[in-house]
Amino acid sequence: MQLLNTAIRAAQKGGEVVARYYETGVAREVKDDKSFVTRADKEAEEAIITEIKSQFPDHGFLGEESGKTMGASEYTWVIDPLDGTSNFVNGIPIFGVSVAVLQQGSPVAAAVYQPVGNTLYSAEKGKGTYWNGKPVRVSNGDAQHAMISFGPGKKEKERLNRIFSRVESYVKTKRYLGSAALELAFLARGGTEGFICLGLNSWDYAAGVLIVEEAGGLITHLDGTPWKFGDGDSFIASNGKIHDKLVSLVASVKG
Ligand code: 2AM
Ligand code: CA
Known about the structure:
Structural class: alpha+beta
Order of helices and strands: HHHEEEHEEEEEEHEHEHEEH
CATH superfamily of the largest domain: Fructose-1,6-Bisphosphatase, subunit A, domain 1
CATH architecture of the largest domain: 2-Layer Sandwich
CATH class of the largest domain: Alpha Beta
Number of domains: 2
Bound molecules: adenosine-2'-monophosphate, calcium ion
Shape: globular
Strand content: 25-35%
CATH topology of the largest domain: Fructose-1,6-Bisphosphatase, Chain A, domain 1
Largest sheet: 8 strands, mixed
Distance between the termini: 43 Å
Radius of gyration: 17 Å
Number of strands: 13
Number of helices: 8
């Protein structure tokens, strides 16, 4: 519980920083000013790490900004202070702060905080997923009525685009939302039915994957075999019900 509370508090502290930058920076002006985002990122990550260190001074860290610091303990905090950077600079409020803690390499507590709207998603291993403090589960929606979102594709943009087109006739709606952490959280609370991701960085999804699994969702490799944190940056996450459908759709698109 102390791990979860710290994850939540740290994500909210980071969120206060990025929200302040978001509100004071007119999107048009910050769009071409990379230093604005860098400052927001750095300051938010510092606020997050300060909060965690006040509770757990010997834990390790892996942050998008500060890189990896090994601690003396079995716990490592994986932090993305601003997930959805492109949305942030374009004045689109789909961005969040992602904080997860790994125990021996596996996420055990997680928080994803969306500052605009003050929305918190959290999960603790074996204890379920919470949306603003209320327990939530993945949806029971079938493929025909599904909304599926997609990660950025990293080095496999063309393949991702082909998959994006391929699912057209099998699902109701498709989205690139631009924040993997939030997309996993949206799936967990039943807002969407799936998230297909071909290459991310581990800080983008460390919190989100626990939030999905604790909400009853399923995450596998692209070929449908079991996936766990540390297995790599490409996976299919879903409500479980449409999982086989997504796996077969992805398989039908040649790499
Ligand atoms: P970021 O905002 O922290 O950069 C966008 O679809 C999602 O993918 C976000 O989670 C974003 O994180 C991440 N992302 C953006 N560009 C990326 C890249 N080149 N490689 C991996 N992940 C990326
Ligand atoms: Ca990110």
